[in-house]
Design goal:
The chain has one helix at residues 38-44; strands at residues 8-16, 22-25, 31-35, 53-62, 65-68, 76-80, 83-91, 96-98, 112-117. The chain is mainly beta. The protein has two domains: 2-80, OB fold (Dihydrolipoamide Acetyltransferase, E2P) (Beta Barrel); 85-117. The chain has a five-stranded mixed barrel with strand order 1-2-3-5-4. The termini are far apart. Bound molecules: zinc ion (ZN). Residues 91, 93-94, 96, 104, 106-107, 109 line the site of zinc ion.
């Protein structure tokens, strides 16, 4: 299917649409609604990321509707201070990293948002 086609990158501000759904506001103030798998939508619904300079990779389902690539492809980034940051979540108690917000599988603590430089490995 479309899996072999490299994703399109879209960058703007992560906002809420009129229907309280995740959306990206582009530089021309046009809003594109964002869709994706459950963990992806979990990240898009994370209040801590609203208003950030946000990048998604995926494809348009229809004009104005953008489908973000599955969570395991790492298709979401935050841009800050000229850096491209990956989004993950961290439990500092158990040292467990996850890719969508929620409670730690181990201690049930609400995980911290952890932005890391995408170029640093
Ligand atoms: Zn934990």
């Amino acid at each position: 299917m479309a899996a072999a086609v490299p994703g399109l990158s879209l960058r703007g501000t992560l906002v809420r649409s009129a229907g309280d759904k995740p959306a990206l506001e582009l530089s021309d103030h046009k809003q594109v609604s964002l869709e994706g798998d459950e963990p992806t939508v979990g990240v898009l619904n994370d209040k801590r990321l609203w208003g950030t300079d946000f990048e998604v990779v995926g494809h348009f389902n229809s004009p104005g509707h953008f489908e973000v690539d599955p969570i395991h492809t790492r298709a979401m980034f935050v841009h800050k201070d000229g850096k491209r940051l990956t989004i993950s979540y961290w439990c500092e108690v158990c040292y467990i990293r996850t890719y969508t917000p929620g409670t730690c599988v181990c201690c049930q603590k609400y995980t911290d948002l952890d932005l890391k430089d995408a170029d640093e490995r």
